[in-house]
Amino acid sequence: MSEHAALLDVAREAVAKATEIVRSRPSFSVSAKGDRDLVTDVDTAVEDALREFLAAETPEIGILGEERGRSGGTGGRWWALDPIDGTANFARGIPLCGISLALVDGEHSTVAVIALPYLGVTYTAARGEGAYANGERVGASTATEMADAMIAVGDFAIGRLAEEKNHARLTLLSDLGARAQKIRMLGSAAIDLSWVADGKLDAALILSNNPWDTMAGVLLVREAGGVVVDRDGSEHTVGSEATIAVGAGLRKEIVDALDRAYGVVR
């Protein structure tokens, strides 16, 4: 068994444990951790359980989690974990949320697992091995016409500089809304990116790049034959400003729309 395959098995087991925790908690507490930013005790329970499991299984690999920050590891590899991506949805009983775990090596992810616990789907990928949903291979959209495209857009910015950032988002929504088949705002980067990999969405525009939100989904999209770039159209890395995932046939259209929204002239 290759190292990537072995580490994918570890990631699968970790996310299965997380799914069990999420689905077994009939009630939970919700608290604010910032401006319109929520956390539940399920988020922290999942992260704590997976930190313990991953530290035991892969003690040489560090971990960056949304709720507890970065710890452990002695090399350049680390796990990027979002224990519940889409906490606001989860807290309201909306089943659009996911558990996202990626192994990051240098600037890119090499192993990815995203589980959608209320939709019964687990997406997996290892570099060079393709992307899968419940063990069945998936592929990104081949659409080439914007009029055929269903596009997910990430949440509006909150906190510092939110008004400035959201001005560009509103411009982008107006542009895409006038030309795309449909625009969706699902509230979970894990779902947005998984569904681009699965061809359910033709593009997902996440105008931020927290590694715990995006690195698993980025690998899924690439292994499914899609493209992931930064806001300016350059190659996406862990240090990118934004995460723009799209079927290859719509790459130029999407990057051009972003340039217009942000006033970029090439």
From TrEMBL:
Q: Which residues form a coiled coil?
A: none
Q: Return the PROSITE patterns for the record.
A: IMP_1
Show the catalytic activity. Answer: a myo-inositol phosphate + H2O = myo-inositol + phosphate
Q: Which cofactor does it need?
A: Mg(2+)
GO: which molecular function terms? hydrolase activity
Q: What is its EC number?
A: 3.1.3.25
Q: Name one Pfam family in it.
A: Inositol_P
Q: Which CDD domains match?
A: IMPase (cd01639)
**Which family does the similarity line name?**
Belongs to the inositol monophosphatase superfamily.
Q: This chain belongs to which protein, by name?
A: Inositol-1-monophosphatase
Q: Which organism is it from?
A: Amycolatopsis melonis
